[in-house]
Structure formats: structure tokens, C-alpha cells
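Reply to dn_fold:

You asked what the input looked like. This is it:
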Amino acid sequence: MLLLLLLALAADPPKGAAPKPQGAGGDNAKARTASMIIESEQPGEEAPPPVPQGEERKAIGDYIRDNSAEIRECYARRLQERPTLMGKLVARFDIGPSGKVIGATADGMADKDLVLCVVTAVRKWEFEKPQSGGKLRVAYPFKFEPQPAR
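and this is what came back:
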């Protein structure tokens, strides 16, 4: 809301302000530029969600291993185009209070299609509700390497 107010003030001078004279110097020929200040609506930075611990961490790891078939399929499809593609991709995501994944990213490999496919798969996951009642932050590594021909 502050941003809208600043933009409105930059576009329209306050009432009662004298209009700038338009001299022969071409002041009006220059495009008016507005400066923009973006401020957070929340005071201070929000602390990152905690990392799962103990049994909750084990349950999340088990869920990921049991539900990573779509991620393996992402890699198999990319291998069709890039047979030497291999490496470690770290999926980072938050589990919301409902257990659903809210926001996900992945990094570590320079294959945009693989990253997009993995992130899309991760965003579909739904875990048990966090014991804390809040969010949890998870970073899970996936190691990709082609299987040798048999």
C-alpha cells in the first residue's frame, strides 16, 4: 500500500503545488521518471522454518523415497536427450502446517528441464502435518547417474 501511495504522489503533485513553468528549454520534452521505493509489509525478516528432527525427519525421508518414482521418470526422460547427464540435484521445499508442500526449488545441476520437472513433482507431495503445527524446511539431495547397460 505504501508503494501505491508513493507512486500516486510521484505521478500527481500535491494540490496547491505550483505547476512547473514550461520554458523554451524543453522541460516538458524530458520524460518524467518516478523513483520507486519498495518496502516490506512485514517488519523485520521472518525466521526460516525449522528443519525436521528425529522421527519426523525419518518419516519425511521415507515418504520421499516411497514417492520419488515421478522424479526418477523426470531423469529417465532427460537421459533420452542427454545420455551423459548425471550429478546431484538438491530439492529445497517447505512443508506447510497442513502437510502440503508450499514452495519448492532445486539446484545443483544445469539442466533446466530436469529442475523444472523435479520441482513440479515435489510440489505435489503431501506429508503428515508437522508436529510443531507450523512449517518445516527440507533440503533433499537426489543423485542421478545413468544405469550401466546389462
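Residues 54-144 form a domain with the TolA/TonB C-terminal domain fold (CATH 3.30.2420).
Hope that clears it up.
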